[in-house]
Structure formats: C-alpha cells, structure tokens
Request: fold
Amino acid sequence: MLNKIVETKRQELQQLTLPEENNVERFSLYKALRSPNRPVGLIAEVKKASPSKGVINDAIDPVEIAREYEEARADAISVLTDETYFKGNRQFLIDIKKSVRIPVLRKDFIIDEKQIEESKRIGADAILLIVAVLGAEKTEEFYNKAEELGLECLVEVHSEQELSTLLERFTPRLIGVNNRDLATFQTSVENTGKLAKKIPPQCLFISESGIHSSRDMEKVKSFGANGVLVGESLMRAETPAKGIASLYGEVTVGY
Ligand SMILES: O=P(O)(O)OC[C@@H](O)[C@@H](O)c1c[nH]c2ccccc12
Reply:
C-alpha cells in the first residue's frame, strides 16, 4: 500500500503548484514537546480518513477540530494534507495555522524537495519525514533542507532496522515510532517498547498510531515516550475534549 501511495504522490507532484508564502507566526514543535502541558505530550491529528479505516469523520470542520484540540491543551496539531488517501488538504493547514497558536505539523508523504518549500509556504512549523519511504540518506538530506528553511522535522521509523540505519547516518532531534506497520496496517503499541531502548537519550521521541485508551497511554509512558501522536480515536470521540480527557484518564467536568 505504501508503494501505491508513493506512486500516486509522484504523479500528483507533476501538477504541484507552489502557493504564495503564508506569512504566519512560527511555533517550535521541539520546544512544545520538551515542556508539554501533560507528562506525556499530545500531538492531536486532524484526519478525516485513512486507507486502513476508510472515512473516519468527514463531517468535521478541520479548523473547529484544531481549535478544540488547542482548547483541550494539546501541545501541537498534526494536519493530514494528502487528499487521495486521507481526504486531507493543504488548505486545511493554511486555515488551521491562522486559528491556533501551537505548532502545526504537516502530515504527508514528502518525497520531493519541492514539498519542503511548499510546506514552508503554507505555514507548517514542522514536516514528517518517513524513513520507510525515503531511506536514511534522503531522510538526512531532506532534514537538512527543512532546517535551512526553518522547518522542524518529525522523523518516523517503524522497525528496529529503520531506526538503526537512520542512527548510523544522523541523530534527528525528534523521532516518531509508528506503531502501525505501513505494509499491513497492523498496529501495536508494543512496537514503541521494542524501539524505545534504542533511541538516544538526547532525542525527543513520540509514539504514533493505534493509541485508543488510557491503558495505551500508560504503556507508552512506561516506555519513556515524550509524547503521543493520536488521530483516529480523537476523530471518533464525541468531542475532541472528551477524546483527550479519556486518553489521559481525566474526568470532564460539566455537561
Ligand atoms: O489514527 P491513529 O491510529 O491515531 O494514527 C495517527 C497517526 O500516527 C497516523 O495518522 C500516521 C502516522 N504516520 C503517518 C504517515 C502518513 C499518514 C498517517 C500517519
């Protein structure tokens, strides 16, 4: 499936038009995750659909969801901008950036340098670089390019092998362990435990995907994650605030 997504992205990039620069205030994702609002930081994701789950919640207004995430003290927002497989849109990020004052991560399949420039222009504070897509060498190349443009990076690995080839080349400041196997879509938070011990202590690290309960949260906290990246379970919650409260085992007051 990952190859299919990347192939589609390659075709879409032939029509890529770089937008005007969206002059926005920048917020640091690294800083936010170094001193999160809760013991385990939260990157809350705006995700309408996914290849593994189909439509998750198509009725939502992305800006409204992002504002409610911010109100519920998420530390950052992740915005899917892939249209074909996730029903995302780069316009969602442009609009969300105008409405929140916390870091915004662009969640997409970055396979070409042009997309790094594009991410900067739409106002992203950070971009996702997927080692399974880029390999360690290109990940480092894009990481440096992003830094030149003033963008931060969440460097995502799934397997121990990806992590070790990455660390042989360079040590990113922020690593994401994806609990989802992008080939089979199977998720297990145990994957975070498997990789956690191999992540250098100076790195910030995030557990991504398949976090649906306070039990999952407790587990990844015990593995030493600085934060989590959560989409589906928040997008399916009655309200973002209730979804976040239940993940952290907090009682929501009032109605
Ligand atoms: O919806 P979940 O299981 O909470 O997962 C969120 C996020 O980790 C997931 O959307 C994701 C992680 N890495 C990605 C790369 C591309 C697209 C999506 C992703």
Summary: The beta strands are 41-46, 49-50, 54-55, 76-80, 104-107, 126-130, 152-157, 174-178, 204-208, 227-230. The longest strand covers residues 41-46. The domain at 1-10+29-248 is CATH 3.20.20.70 (TIM Barrel). The chain has a mean pLDDT of 97.
